[in-house]
Amino acid sequence: MKTFFSFFFYFFINSILFSQENYPVPEKTASRLFYIQHSNNYNTYVYDANMEGDFISTENPINEYRIVYTEGGAKKPLNKIQKQFAYGMITKLIEPNLIEMHLAASSKLKFYLTFNDKEKPRVYVTINKCKLYLDSIFVKLKEGSTSLKTKAKYVLFSGKDFITGENVVEKLIVK
After folding, report:
1. CB of 62 within 8 A of CB of 47?
2. What residues contact residue 103 under an 8 Å CB cut-off, 6+ apart?
3. Which of 2-11, 98-107, 127-136, 157-166 has the lowest average pLDDT?
């Protein structure tokens, strides 16, 4: 896990989430899956589901982009480095409406995109043995981190418990 976060943050740290004081929350949409923010600035990486009728698109299941709050909230695509080495999602179809995914930074942490006719598209992940539907991720960076030398202190995964639906935040300490 340590390798995942070291590599992940080295290439992408420009955002992350969790309801930090004064952090903007992107407008919720029907296809919103989750977003990522970090402690260096307010820019946000957003992940929405691409739907084809009643099914998740098998060819391009995720619409990933960034909201650049440092430029007035401009919506921009991920740049090539962000997409290939950090924030881009690599996807694998397991069955219709079930897609396994991981961030380009590492294949160690798996996310699962699912959809049924009773719910909107959702992503679940297991952190600290807690399975949760993900709403946001926030990365707290260590002091002195730069875009080329980024080190995380911890990562917060925020969402709803998979079974109970109660709000839950799981903290992952990066060593």
Report:
1. yes
2. 8, 86, 87, 88, 89, 90, 109, 111
3. 2-11
